[in-house]
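tool_call: predict_structure(chain=1)
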Amino acid sequence: MDPATGALLAQTAEGHSVVLGLMRCARIWFCPVCSATIRHKRAEEITRAVVEWLQRGGTAYLVTLTARHDYRDELADLMDAIQGSRAATPAEITKARTVEAEAKAKLAETEAAARSAADAARIAAPKGQKRAAIAAARAESAGGIAEVAAELAAAREVLGRTRRQAGAYQRLITGGTWAGDKREKASDAAAEGIRDRIGYIGMIRATEVTVGTVNLWHPHIHAIVLVGGRTEGERAAKHVVEVFEPGDAQLQEWEEHWRAVWTGHLERTNPKYRPSDECSIPDCKCDGKGHGVDFKRLETASAADELSKYIAKTQDGKSPAQELARGDYKTAGGDNMTPFEMLFRIGDLTGGVAEDDAPGHGTLPWCLARWHEYERAMSGRRAIEWTRYLRTMLGITGGDTEDDDADLLADADAAAEFRGGVAVTDRGWAAVTKLGLDLAATEAAEGTDANTDPAALTTRVRDVFGMAGAAAEVRQLGPQEVADAYAAILESNAERRQEAAARRLREEENAAEEYDADEAAERAIQTIARRRVAARNAT
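tool_result:
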């Protein structure tokens, strides 16, 4: 966190050793260590949010969204279909724009050359044959123009893909049927969309992935949807002014609309992704409605005084917060593996464990190929995402970006009680990590002797650092010195986080403006489409 301070190797009251003052990768999809901490804290936030909304008298649903798939489907394609594509990097956008500009200029040059050739043919042809000469010249140039035009079309398609394309999830919460028609000429019925009729205030979405031996990738989305509220204000000033119980007819309308939108978008993206409309599994809880979209209402425990008893439970007894957030400790079951189960099998197999003795399935090359595909497909995607400003309405502080995940990790050990430890300079820590001795140094600090025999702990750690020629970079600290040093590191980091939070707020406001513009464009496209249909019907 702070190169001027270095790192701290501290021994906790329980006898564990922790390394303080280091930034962590915060890669929720790929790092089991960081993911466990981030998801645990996210689960706590989600629980607080659901409890808060249920206590206010609101209603919550756990909605699971899936797509049909088989072993031929790439994970990246499935993720684009359900969650939307990722925006390109600035460098990729610049390159795509350059290629498009070059193709456009090339087409203009080719068309100009064709016109010149036609003029030359006209001038050279004798009287009475000029039209035929022009037509022949144009025909000769047509192939070249078509080829360059195809290059321009391909370049424009690539440029179009640099902007994030909406997936089935985004389609659920866009469009006039959902959001209503806010134009002055709209009727009262059209002005109020499904969103208003059910009192939708937002949702918390988490994406989960498993991999199997038969159908390979199975990405799906869990979302806790909060309904039954009326809001006023815009953006950061938005707040709940009324809580009500949505009617059965309105809830049924919502469920049918989401099912139609979800399956319809998947089918348009790729017909094979469309979930089955009916379920043939005996005693299945989907009530014969298929497995594309599954709704479960979350209930509170009745007559409970303690806050924990208000936590909603799903039908299988799992907390909906855990269902959303704790993808790190789930086991896929059957022939499926979670990505981390696959990663642990890779670790076992590379460590010499026999295939039959290692948990999971698949050969080492197979697992490595699947893991590499997983990294490419999931990098840069949000794992857990809240509707914009939902946190503010429910009084939940913080955010859900990757930067916010890193902030959660920075505070993970702040409340620990320390027996004592050592301070290590930035140079010293770099020396041991370069040789892969950081784990050995951490293990050397374990025990219960930091406050009774601090010199013994310091000696053990120095012995490890000595292997890297950095024994002099270790300084002994008492319990209070560890606490003070870590407090100074956190204070310095908090200042940087405040600056970063202000920057992210500005970026969020800009993103909100872009979202509003996109929504307006979507409505305009739908209006044009309706007018064209009406015109065709009129003729």
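agent: The CA atoms of residues 43 and 321 lie 5 Å apart. Proceeding to next step.
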